[in-house]
Predict the 3D structure of the following.
Amino acid sequence: MTRRFLTRLACSFAAAASLALPLAVHAADEAPDALIKRLSDETLSAIKADPALRGGDLTKVMALVDSKIMPNVDFRRMTAAAVGPQWRQASPEQQQKLQAEFKTLLVRTYSGALSQVSDQTVNVKPLRAAADDKEVVVRTEVTGRGDPIQLDYRLAQSPGDGAGWKIYNLNVLGVWLVETYRSQFAQEINSKGIDGLIAALTSRNSANQAAKKG
C-alpha cells in the first residue's frame, strides 16, 4: 500500500456531510477508541463484501459514507477549519455550498482508492486521555500489505446529553487532512474570495465527474 493510497482511503472514510440517513443508534457513552474501531471494522467489511464499492461506484460510495460515517463526523467543524478565518464571514448559504462541494470533492477524488482494499485491518492503540477530556486523539495503525500505516483521528465530545463523540480531523502518516486543505483553500480565498473557492470546488468536482465518465 502506498502513502498516496492510504491518504485517499482515509479521506474517503472522512468524507461525511449533511445528508441524514437512518443509522442504528449506539450507546451515547461509547468510548472514542471503541467508536473508531467499530467504524473501521464496519467500513472495511462493507468494502470487502461489495465489488461495486471496490470498483468506485459513486452512488454506493456516497451511501456508505452517509450511512456509516456521516452521523459520527462533525463535518461543519471540519469544513470551517479547512476554510479558515473566512468561514465566519461566509453567509449561511455559502457555508452550505462549501460543505456540499467539499464532501463531493473528497468522495469523488478518493473513491477510486476503495478498489485497493483487500486484507487490511485497523488496530486501535491504547487511548491516552483523562476520563473528563472533551477532545482526544485516537491513534490507529492500518496493517496488511507493506509497512503499517499511521492513521489517527481527532474527536470532540458533542455538547448536550447523549450526543457522543464526533470526528473532526484525521492524520495520515503525520499529515492532518484539515491543515492540508486549509493551505489549498487559502490561496483561492485570497485570490477570489469565498465565492471563488466555491466556484473552484465546483469546477474540480465537475472535472472529476467528467474524468470518471471518460
